[in-house]
Design brief:
Elements: H1 3-8, H2 15-22, H3 27-43, H4 53-61, H5 65-71, H6 73-87, E1 97-101, H7 107-115, E2 121-126, H8 129-137, E3 149-154, E4 174-179, H9 183-186, H10 192-202, E5 203-212, H11 219-228, E6 231-237, E7 247-252
Bound molecules: S-adenosylmethionine.
The site of S-adenosylmethionine has 25 residues, from helix 4, helix 6, helix 7, strand 2 and helix 9.
Length: 265
């Protein structure tokens, strides 16, 4: 086991997370499963590779949990490699408010709960209601094996971000916003603007955003949009040296997150 694997997959790995870990064993098998599932979905007229929000929501909502897991396999594999590296030694050691945009069935949320301090509150957003049903059934653990507090909201991430009881998140209340398989696959330079504007509203000065690039939104365009919204890029992370897509960690200008200790709600 490499040192990064030892960090990402420690001996305390909770049983449910071992399912996520399986993807690491054989990337070729993950890719084959993904290709087969995507082909079968296309034959049923389900095409999720789009930047049209209605088409995206309808396509993901039409998938079974197994189909989603299959088409999201490479993303899940990448999440365990990029997110822990990006967040390691970056976050203040106190309970945080953490937002996961486009959480699917909760695979990325699961990585986030492992990487963030105990007592943190996690809020995960997803537009496809059936996927949230699966996400809610899962359990989420911190690195010490304790259960994490995760709430889910069914809404578009380009709208005002709200708590499950419909209260909007407070301005500058959020310590970390995460997205994987979202900006680079379902937004472009035009459609990403409302979501990024909302990040500018909710992320606290000194707080972080870890966002993905991809075929529909390049890393350069993402950096440019985030710069205009008041975020500085810190570093871009890829799952392996040849990966064409990655995630960039940004910090909101104007403060040090570690100095702040506000109530979240
Ligand atoms: C490729 S999946 C990634 C899921 C998860 N982040 C992960 O890494 O496992 C992208 C997810 O984003 C959701 N999504 C796409 N556009 C969205 C939007 N505008 N608002 C909310 N969710 C969205 C999709 O329904 C899908 O579940």
């Amino acid at each position: 086991m490499s040192s990064i694997d030892a960090f990402v997959f420690p001996a305390t790995l909770a049983p449910a997370e071992k399912v996520d870990r399986r993807g690491s064993a054989n990337l070729l098998a993950v890719c084959w499963r993904q290709w087969r599932a995507e082909w079968a979905l296309a034959r049923r007229g389900i095409r999720f590779r789009s930047t049209d929000p209605d088409a995206v929501a309808a396509a993901y909502a039409a998938m079974s949990e197994e189909e989603f897991e299959a088409i999201n396999g490479r993303q899940q594999w990448a999440n365990w490699r990029t997110i822990p590296r990006a967040l390691r030694n970056r976050l203040p050691n106190r309970p945080l408010l953490v937002v996961d945009l486009g959480c699917g069935v909760g695979s990325s949320t699961r990585v986030l709960t492992r990487c963030c301090p105990e007592g943190s509150v996690f809020l995960a957003f997803e537009c496809a209601r059936p996927l949230l049903t699966h996400a809610r059934r899962r359990r989420y653990f911190h690195s010490d094996g304790s259960l994490a507090r995760v709430s889910f909201v069914c809404q578009g991430v380009d709208e005002h971000l709200c708590w499950p009881d419909s209260r909007p998140l407070k301005d500058r209340s959020t310590d970390l916003v995460h997205a994987s398989g979202l900006f680079g696959h379902h937004f472009d330079v035009r459609t990403a603007v409302p979501a990024i504007r909302e990040l500018r509203r909710v992320v606290t000065p000194g707080g972080f955003a870890l966002l993905d690039d991809g075929p529909t939104l390049s890393a350069d365009d993402l950096r440019r949009l985030m710069h205009h919204a008041g975020f500085e890029p810190l570093e871009r992370y890829r799952s392996w040296f040849g990966a064409p897509v990655g995630q960039t960690l940004f910090r909101r200008r104007g403060g040090s997150s570690s100095r702040l200790n506000r109530p979240h709600v």
